[in-house]
Amino acid sequence: MSSSRDEKGNLQNLTASSTTSTTAFFTFFFEHRWLLGKTGIERPAVSFLSSLLDLRCVCVLLDGIESIEHVQPSLFDSLLLSTDHVEMTTTVEQLEPEMGRIAFADDAPPVLLDLMVVENKGLVIQNHPEMGRVLVATRDFDEAEIGSAILVEKPAIVCQQDDHMDFMEKFLDAPEAVQVGILDMFYQPLESPMGKSLIEPAKVLFMIGVLEDFMVIHQLLSIWMTNGMQWQNDKSALTLFASKFSHSCNPNLGFSTRGDCIEFILLRPIAKGELATFSYLTDLLETPTYERRQLLLDTKSFVCMCDRCLGPDYCRCIKCPGCPEEKIPCYYPYPEDKPFEPLWACPNCNLVDSAVMEQKERSMDRTLDVVSQGVQSINFQNRSKFSPSMLHELVQECQGTLSPVHYLTIKSLSLLFSVSTSLAFDYMKKLVVRGISLNDPSVHSLFRISVEAGFALVLAGECCAANCSGCYDDYFNGDSATTTTRSSLLVIHHEANYDRALPMRHALDNLLQLPISWWPPCALDMAERYLPLLKAKYGTTITERSNGEPEDDTIQELEAIVVELVENASCLECGTYWDGKIGQRAQ
């Protein structure tokens, strides 16, 4: 790649200064006033500002906002002095009549954001005394809006994950306005864990001449790693407005990609003035508090202090050694001094020896690691050593030794799901090669096991989210394979959870491989509960999903089946099934 800045976005404008009109300076000031006082952010150059913004355009876009009390002439003058500007005869008071209805409130987004945000139903940027710039609700979002998108935004940049060169190329090819918007994002300093990890990649990019300033390269990489969001399966996206969302391990928003936009979906009501949050992490309900906090500290440079991290950790809920009927969650009583030190307290036995509990966890974790490595290394002919029945016993051991919702129990369920699914598809391939019907009890049995393991994954996560010690395990450990009537369904105690949408979709993909007579008794209720969330996250047809999503119609197909079965529930009892791919019905 050429090292010329003129060929890639003319970044020289970001550091050079030249003489321009005071109006252009002032226009930039009230649109980017937070940039001036934010520690560690370089001030964009004067020569760039005059070409980027136009006072009359800003007046129109920000019509209706009246406050100008936040503008201080002295601060404006200091900006001009800091850039060696000599034309300082025009003051704020002299410009006021020309500015008319321009906004100066701290929550007013710059013009760039108006161009990228497709739909915003009530979120604004505000300054938080501890968290910096955040997004808050300007109105109440009630239960009727749950599942709907309240913010839709086009990414400023989309690039390959973990490809530093691709990111730099995309940044340098972006319009100058987008470059300034990205440079205005929060980034982690050089001495942070993430900052240190980016030193070597920045050196490589500096040595090959991508840019002439090592610190700017490092800053850009830090911005990308700090603010990048998942885009499709293997890409990362930067958004100018949504980059101000705060993190929570109990978020009120979820996000998904749809077409060329990112949508933020309401998960629970938000009160006016409340922070709008989504999770920077995946698999929230499978990850214990100490791991989430450590990951956020390593990648985002903060220790999470959300309500879930400060409350009981049900991902490490255990059965009390002294009274096994008691399932006790883990606590971290010293969030500031010792944020990763666990404590278990039984209401009957008082404190439980934490060292003993941690040893149990380490022992079970080592066992699961050995099994996981073995499963990945074996071929089809040698899989009897790690059969679904052996993995089912391992799940029961985790449930008995720890608890049904412990993160290691969930890890064992994931192994059972993966192995049974892989075995089922391998067996189907063998039947196809031999020309044998796919309507084979061995295939159905493997898919049935995988579906039930997937449902258990979902239900365990729901229990964790509801601070429940595990109310699903009686069903999973019972003789559910012999029960097919709707009247014997598992009693659902908790709400569907957005974090469980992906494992639920995988379970339902396998469910569609089964004849209806083989469906688990809770299948219909599980599908009914999650269809709204799945439609909100993935869309109903391939044309509504983002580019790169698997080209199947699982959700639409499943919805049609569920509607029919709800109207005629006897299908689960009479043995009616659809042979092979569901859609060709047979008796």
Description of the molecule:
This protein has 587 residues and is α+β, with helices and mostly antiparallel strands. It contains 23 helices and 17 strands. The protein has helices at residues 22-31, 33-37, 46-52, 55-61, 73-82, 92-99, 111-116, 164-173, 176-183, 193-197, 199-207, 214-227, 289-300, 307-310, 354-377, 388-401, 407-434, 441-465, 473-477, 501-511, 523-538, 554-567, 571-574; strands at 117-120, 123-128, 132-137, 149-153, 157-160, 229-231, 235-238, 246-247, 253-258, 261-266, 277-278, 313-319, 327-331, 343-346, 350-352, 577-578, 585-586. Strands 1-4-10-9 form a four-stranded antiparallel sheet. Strands 12-13-14-15 form a four-stranded antiparallel sheet. A three-stranded antiparallel sheet has the order 5-7-6, with helices on one face. Strand 14 (343-346) and strand 15 form a beta hairpin. Helix 15 (354-377) runs parallel beside helix 17 (407-434), helix 18 (441-465) packs antiparallel against helix 20 (501-511) and helix 20 packs across helix 21 (523-538). The longest helix is centred in the C-terminal third of the chain and has 28 residues, at 407-434. It is globular. The termini are far apart. Residues 1-110, 478-489, 541-552 and 569-587 have low confidence and may be disordered.
